[in-house]
Design brief:
It is a single chain. The protein is mainly β and 97 residues long. The protein contains 1 helix and 6 strands. Strands 1, 2, 3, 4, 5 and 6 form a 6-stranded antiparallel beta sheet that branches. The longest helix is centred in the C-terminal third of the chain and has 14 residues, at 82-95.
């Protein structure tokens, strides 16, 4: 039996390896929605070759669509800074009171 990569929401990751080096290292993920369309939020770090170290934490929200038994990324929104993330939190907190 062959396993299809990204067949379940739990299989989805932002980890990315190139030439044996983990370039994008997933630190955490939260599944926001499941189903034919899935939305996940990831916390990750990116390898910075010039520094020889991983970046500070970064955040991305990705939307996936399941087609032919496999999830494929449809869109993403990168939270560009902690300040932007804080502004999103504050705005949603006001809207959802």
């Amino acid at each position: 039996m062959t396993t299809i990569p990204n067949a379940t929401v739990e299989d989805l990751t932002v980890n990315y390896e190139e030439n044996g080096q983990l370039i994008v290292k997933e630190l955490d993920k939260v599944v926001l929605t499941k189903g034919a369309w899935a939305t996940l939020m990831f916390r990750y770090q990116q390898w910075e070759e010039a520094k020889g170290a991983y970046s500070t934490d970064k955040y991305v929200i990705r939307r996936y669509r399941k087609m032919n038994g496999e999830y494929k990324q449809q869109s993403k929104f990168v939270i560009s800074s902690p300040a932007q993330g804080q502004k999103i939190i504050e705005t949603l907190s006001q809207w959802i009171e």
